[in-house]
Design a protein that fits this description.
Elements: E1 5-11, H1 15-26, E2 29-33, E3 37-41, E4 48-54, E5 67-71, H2 75-88, E6 94-97, E7 102-106, E8 115-119
Parallel strand pairs: 1-4, 5-8
Antiparallel strand pairs: 2-3, 3-4, 6-7, 7-8
Length: 130
């Protein structure tokens, strides 16, 4: 088997807003859409993201342990830009830190079971042997 995509849930009320944020701010391309889900790819990436609409009223209390993670030389600043965009589009945004090199963004009303993480590229420099 070969990895194809990972899936997370978005509150149905904010589904299109978050998809637009990923498209306009991070360059994601919409690959496929159904009534309940969307598949997105960031050019240059080889794993896709699927987001499903969720009617769940409760949020995962431990969602900080489930991330959609990005690399950036200035991760906190990158998340601040996304937070500003989200706030300008009516969503509350919270930013926190796992360390001085890895940060998270939560849009509590929209993200059901995950947060967006941004971290310095050297944290993903894994020695992989084929």
């Amino acid at each position: 088997m070969r990895l194809n995509h990972a899936a997370n849930r978005l509150d149905a009320r904010h589904f299109d807003t978050v998809v637009e944020m990923l498209r306009s701010q991070l360059g994601f391309v919409e690959l496929r859409r159904t009534a309940r889900a969307v598949w997105l790819r960031q050019p240059g990436a080889n794993v896709d993201l699927q987001f499903s609409r969720s009617e769940t009223v409760g949020r995962d209390a431990d969602k900080l342990r489930s991330q959609v993670s990005f690399l950036d030389e200035a991760p906190r600043a990158a998340l601040e830009r996304l937070a500003d965009w989200a706030r300008a589009h009516g969503l509350a945004a919270e930013i926190g830190a796992y360390s001085d090199r890895e940060f998270w963004l939560d849009l509590p009303e929209a993200f059901v079971d995950f947060v967006i993480e941004a971290m310095r590229p050297e944290l993903a420099d894994y020695p992989v042997q084929d």
